[in-house]
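Complex 510.
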Amino acid sequence: MFKKVVIANRGEIAVRIVRACRELGVQAVAVYSDVDRASLHVRLADEAYPIGPAPSRESYLVIEKIIDVARSAGCDAIHPGYGFLAENPALARACVDAGITFIGPSASAMEQLGSKTAARHIARDVGAPTVPGTLDPIENADEAAKIAREIDFPVILKAVAGGGGKGMRSVASESALASAWRDAASEAQNAFGDARLYMEKYLERPRHIEIQVLADHHGHLVYLGERECSVQRRHQKVIEEAPSPFMTPELRKAMGEAAMKLARAGNYTNAGTVEFLVDAQRNFYFLEMNTRLQVEHPVTEMVTSLDLVKLQMRIAAGEPLPFQQEEIELRGHAIECRMYAEDPDNNFFPSPGKILDCRVPAGPGIRLDEGIYAGWTVPNEYDPMLGKLIAWGGDRREAMARMRRALEEYYASGIKTNVSLFRRILASADFEKGAIYTRWLDDFLGAEAGTESRDGGEQEAQAEHAAAIAAFLWHTSQSDGANASTTTATAESQWKSESRREQVNREPQQ
Ligand code: MV4
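Predicted structure with MV4 bound:
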């Protein structure tokens, strides 16, 4: 095992990796930008080194700075976390050159499976089902029209370099193709500096289900079941769960084996995730592979009783996988909510700022992977994810009940959080039934916006309002006034939305 690992990341995932290092008796080295000096990952690490100004281009994304820290601190490995440099083959190469182990796949596996069109080729070669469409970029809009007629509308144009839904356009009919082509190509050019597009048949209301795989350096691969990630907003996952409520043992086996064939063909090692779209008839189609640890890995950990970060480190250190496929058992159900500093009542506007006070949920079946603490300021330079709340239960009903209960316990003041969004989703009949698909949340939020009082009766609304005013007064009396700048015009709706959270935190008044 390694002696000392640099964690090339920040926030909750850096904290998560520090914890794995601790449990393995490995020294954890943090890096931090100017605005992360007081961040939790820095406080929990054994050592921490500055890597420059707040913008990630000048700090967390600079390979030489990470390698320099690894060298000068005497580290033998680098864990990239997710985001930042995690899927950049140049870091994996720089590690090889510096004689440091990269905790992840090789640069060439990343290149083969990380490219969407290259991965589609591999999928076809190994017989993993792909959505009908092109395997290579399309020359121009005329050629696109010809192909679309062959595979039949609706189709979807996707950027070769794509990600996050950028450079993606669904096209219902031939008349809409030319303008969709222009829009997608220019969006792709702006976002990725690469305007190339390919085409797929457009699937209506698919689910997004992904398979977790692990591969060691001794030719041994396993899959650890699936995660259901259909609840997304603007291509950002909001809630994930394991197992998928839509899964059958046969489908799991077929998807797991397809995922392993792909990983094997790309000489993949370490932890990876193969994404699929699944239609209502349970046909599944390979979408892309993520060559990193994912944000939502905890739900897999909860239902497999495995520690994916420690396994990543063991694999990178050359140890063989310590179990066979037949030994992997899925037990119970896990749900994860991604907690953000954002305002669900104001179009999910980011809400960085100082956390004045917070209380964390706990108790049976609850896990909180967080990177925050009271008194810390959420910087506005990075993704404002605060952490992930994960609930485990013996079955989906119990996991949902525990999640609802934990969401009631969660409280943070000084910033807005999206906790109320999760309460609404967990209260919805569709989610309860597992009747979710990729655009479900957008439809749900659209439908809600059309209703007057989503929280039910007028009386309850008034009581909530009164409680909110009381809580607001209490809150401003407690704080140093730093957050008392709320204007009268916006205060009312803020009071209302904060009410439950504030109430939970109230102390008896003398
Ligand atoms: C699709 C699709 C329907 N048909 N491909 C969106 C992000 C990218 N990873 C793939 N995406 C989609 N690809 C075909 N052929 C629908 C989506 C899609 C989607 C996928 C997963 C999660 C949320 C989504 C929201 C809208 C569209």
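DSSP finds 17 helices and 22 strands in the chain.
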